[in-house]
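Aim 2 progress update. The chain analyzed this quarter is reproduced below.
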Amino acid sequence: MRVAVLMGGWSVEREVSLSSGAAVAKACRALGHEVVEIDVTPDIAAILMREKPEVVFNALHGRFGEDGCIQGLLELLRIPYTHSGVLASALAMDKPMAKKIFAAAGIPCAQGGVFTREEILKRDVMARPYVVKPANEGSSVGVKLLFPNDDFFFTEANWNYGASAMVEQYIPGREITVAVLDDTPLGVTEIRTREGFYDYEHKYTEGGSVHLCPAPLPQDKYDEVMELALRAHRALGCRGLSRSDFRYNEAGDGKFYILETNTQPGMTPLSLSPEIAALCGMDFNALVARLLQGARLDG
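Predicted structure tokens:
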């Protein structure tokens, strides 16, 4: 097939997307496809109409590539594409809306709410410890933790992620992630960082974190979090590949609390989903092939 690999773009996750796209393009060529690598710019519609791909592999991350925008354009152009469609992508990227859907599906969520930028900059909006996260960014971009003994560090200068944000109770415990492919959970990984929490730097810096794959969990807990990830995937209406992140409050109430579902998981050399797929005997090229096979339009 003639495959257009969309990458880059102009979100804060641009560099990660370029890495994902390069790896995917290499795999597509190894699979025998004709590949067009496209660093996405605002004239992407004209580029696609000129290049005339049979299918798009969406390797974009973050806003405009993961939030339903590019998916809507591909629907208009009638070009089949990988990963989730317009609605699932938009819902997953909007953290407050996704949280409502998770709660309705019976998936445990941290207590919290949406507060304006002015409220967050002015004072503690809930009892510490708590987490502040942008309402529509991925890869832990902009996430801040405030513990009881921390100085209040929010200022006009260090908050530039929109007019409002999610503020949630901090859940202590272990960092757990689950990949789901074509409505089947693939496996579970535990992430341990050298220090601090699993932020953007830890995710994309060599040696910044350790991945325990499969996660060292009792079988009943392993199965439980796999089922929760599948429930999240279905509740949002995801297709293809998704990855759901959880905190496991092992020493507290023993529950898994969902943090978010990623509809465009990373495909870089350090990414979690390809690592989890390898547990099932599916190497990187085979994973790319499966995603291409599932490429389609919503309507």
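The chain has a mean pLDDT of 92. The chain is about 35% helix and 25% strand. These observations will guide the mutagenesis experiments scheduled for the next reporting period.
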